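Researcher: Re-running this chain for the archive, since the previous output was lost when a drive failed. Same request as before.
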Amino acid sequence: MITMEDIITDGHPLLRTVVDEVPLPLSDEDKNVMKEMAEFLANSQDPKIAKKYGLREGVGLAAPQIGLNKRILAVRAEDSNGELCHYALANPKMLSHSEEKTFLPSGEGCLSVEQDIPGIVPRYRRLKLNGYDIEGNLVEVKAHDFIAIVFQHELDHLNGKMFYDHIDKANPLMPPPGMIPL
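Model: Regenerated structure tokens:
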């Protein structure tokens, strides 16, 4: 079971590394990593389990955050219709995105960043991506609004970027013109 002790924190060099694709077909080890990452998110969102194990609530997790040089991510969050979206994907790739951008007015947080870093993080409002699920099937995902933001945050982790890299250092709380808050 993944716990907060397994989450590496800001400053660790792996968080600034473009991580490697995982070989296909997926190994049992990689399938287990995907299962455990998805399980961590579910556990972190369950108040009883989270309290028992001291888990911070998360909606996304990338393999580099647990110290693995692997292109694997997991997402578990409700979309704008209240539907639960949960994915564990290996070798995810963004295929396309909207020109329209959005941001979370409250800013973004990260399981690997222990302090609050205020600022506007511009994100694409919609995106299409694909990746391999735990059974090794290539799946395509269309995401918008909050789910799209979560996927972009996790894709950034696979590319050695942190959410605060996107914040305008001169005007961190000033939304760029034409950007719609979520």
